Amino acid sequence: MSDTHALADLLAVMARLRDPETGCPWDVEQTFETIAPYTIEEAYEVEDAIRRGDPAEIKDELGDLLLQVVFHARMAEEAGLFDFNDVAASIRDKMIRRHPHVFGDASYANSTEQTQAWEEIKAAERKDTKGAESLLDDVPLGLPALKRAQKLQKRAATVGFDWPDAERVWDKVEEELAEVREAAASGDADKTAEEIGDLLFVIVNYARKLKLDAESSARDANAKFERRFRHIEQRLSEAGRKPEDTTLDEMEALWVEAKRLER
């Protein structure tokens, strides 16, 4: 195999893996549905590598993600649906179509105008190719909840269904927080869950208004919590102790220590 023809070689490797007689039994058994979770996982691993800032790791994770595309394309080819070349041609044509200012005669004064035109082109595509009845029809159900909330809000905003500024959204945050407290005080678990959902949704909206990505913020918060809790475990281990044998006040002191060390 040659690095010069690496993509063709990869396609050949996948074809061999999927061979019903001589291939890998696990690979042969897979379907679009069984592979989909791995595809999502690999996309997250690419982002994680980027956050770590390790070029070698980014390269490896991008390769893993590319394998997912090749896997899906191979299964589609076997079913007579499409092949990898069709996938590449589709995204090539889409990029040309969505960039008329680069590949055509269109002209935009700034990035805001270009973004608006991009959304208009996408809307026309949805109507022509997918027969979408609602502006929200093709926002993927499989997205993480916070990411999907932001996409729903952004899509609705394209037709003017949006708060005018972040301050108005913050007023709504305070309103929803009060409703969570009221529902929790009533002891109604279903109502409390509903109100917490409303609160999370409007917080996502607030982040969007500040041009922040709520999903990334949540992941950063998870990473920060994990980092600081690991510090607690490490410090207790050094003293021959375990978290379950430690008071909350003692663990809180170590949490504060972890925060101080991060500054």
Which helices and strands occur, and which strands form pairs?
Blueprint: H1 6-17, H2 25-29, H3 32-52, H4 55-78, H5 84-98, H6 100-103, H7 111-130, H8 145-157, H9 166-186, H10 189-209, H11 214-238, H12 248-262
Helix pairs in contact: 1-4, 3-4, 8-10, 9-10, 11-12
E-strand count? 0
Question: Considering the protein shown, what is the CATH homologous superfamily of the largest domain?
Answer: MazG-like
Instruction: Provide the succession of SSEs.
Output: HHHHHHHHHHHH
Mind telling me the CATH class of the largest domain? Mainly Alpha
By CATH, the topology of the largest domain is Helix Hairpins
Helix content: over 70%
Q: Name the beta content range.
A: under 5%
Structural shape:
globular
Question: Unreliable runs, pLDDT <50, ≥5 residues?
Answer: none
Quickly count the domains. Answer: 3
CATH architecture of the largest domain, please? Orthogonal Bundle
Tell me the Rg in angstroms. 24 Å
Structural features, described:
This protein starts with 5 loop residues before the first helix and ends with a helix. With 263 residues, it is mainly alpha-helical. The longest helix is centred in the last third of the chain and has 25 residues. It has 12 helices and no strands. The chain has 3 domains: 96 residues, Helix Hairpins, CATH 1.10.287.1080; 74 residues, MazG-like (Helix Hairpins, Orthogonal Bundle), CATH 1.10.287; 47 residues, no CATH class. This is Nucleoside triphosphate pyrophosphohydrolase. Pfam families: MazG (PF03819). Its EC number is 3.6.1.9.
